[in-house]
Amino acid sequence: MTAKILDGKWLSKSLRQKLRERAAILLEGGIQPGLAVVLLGDDPASKVYVNNKVRACEECGVKSFRHALPPNTTEKSVLSTIAALNADPEIHGILVQTPLPSHINMRRILESISIDKDVDGFHLYNIGGLVVGNSIFPPCTPYGVQLLLETAGIDVSGKNVVVVGASNIVGKPMALMLLQKEATITICHIKTRDLAQHTILADILIVAAGQPKLIVPQMVKRGVVVIDVGINRMPDGSIVGDVDFDGVRKKASWITPVPGGVGPMTVTMLIENTVHAAERKKL
Ligand code: NAP
């Protein structure tokens, strides 16, 4: 068996076309969706992510506003930047690029974003919404994974879904979203004993640990659907996921590549949430 590819690049392209059309309709009514991106410090990876997001905005007719703040910016100053963006009618979505410098309380920053502009979906209001299956802006990475599965016709209802990684931005919201779709969920993390004992039972395995080759063929059953969220930069500059792609694809029915799987979907769902935020404003 060789797995079929869950092609996030291809799906993103067609989704972005539709987003461009929705943005054009808004523009006819005098509203251009606007996304503010706040970047604190000079982390090179964060700069790359921000550039990707700004490029995707341009592609979809969303206006982007970049706020690059020096690394020593005080928390008070970040909070007043966000307060100004909350009040700005041209801005429909606000994203604060993480990680933040250690002197900044990330939770305080995320809670300061208006819930109507929380397009990353990290505000407690939106996270709480996930628990009851009613969030306004689902977090972008899990939202993108859900759409990849849906588009391929992979029904999660009643399936054993194993999520490896329990972060607030990927693992936990992913688990909540698929629980809402009636999957049976197992969440594994660094303290999980014998990871393979869990992954081998997965009908759908979602890996977001940030560990290259964490998942090898012996850890999965034949026919599994594998979603690799991991992005790891190797010493030679190449980017790999958390899954031994060449080995695991021989046993899986579907698999996401890295790059070209979940990554482009994350950015696309950010634009989806921003356009959605502008549409809500219009109502
Ligand atoms: P994170 O905050 O570091 O969380 C990683 C999670 O994996 C934690 O729960 C950690 O447990 C767990 N973990 C680490 N090593 C493990 C192991 N050996 N066995 C089991 N669990 C393990 O990272 P994140 O922000 O969720 O991101 C995860 C990966 O996805 C990274 O490679 C990141 O670059 C990538 N990512 C990709 C996208 C995309 O669009 N494709 C978006 C976001 C993130 P502890 O917390 O207990 O240590």
What can you tell me about this protein's structure?
The protein folds into 2 domains: 30-115, Leucine Dehydrogenase, chain A, domain 1 (Rossmann fold, 3-Layer(aba) Sandwich), CATH 3.40.50.10860; 140-262, NAD(P)-binding Rossmann-like Domain (Rossmann fold, 3-Layer(aba) Sandwich). It is 42% helix and 16% strand. It is built from 10 helices and 11 strands. It has helices at 8-28, 44-60, 75-87, 106-112, 124-131, 140-151, 171-180, 195-199, 245-248, 262-282; strands at residues 4-5, 34-40, 63-69, 93-96, 160-164, 184-188, 204-207, 225-228, 232-233, 239-240, 254-255. The strands form 3 sheets. Strands 1-11-8-7-5-6 form a 6-stranded parallel beta sheet. A 3-stranded parallel beta sheet has the order 3-2-4, with helices on both faces. The chain has a two-stranded antiparallel ribbon with strand order 9-10. The longest helix is centred in the first third of the chain and has 21 residues, at 8-28. The chain is globular and about 50 Å long. Bound molecules: NADP nicotinamide-adenine-dinucleotide phosphate (NAP). NADP nicotinamide-adenine-dinucleotide phosphate is lined by residues 141, 164-167, 169-171, 188-190, 192, 195, 208-211, 214, 229-232, 262-263, 266. It holds the Pfam family THF_DHG_CYH_C. This is Bifunctional protein FolD.
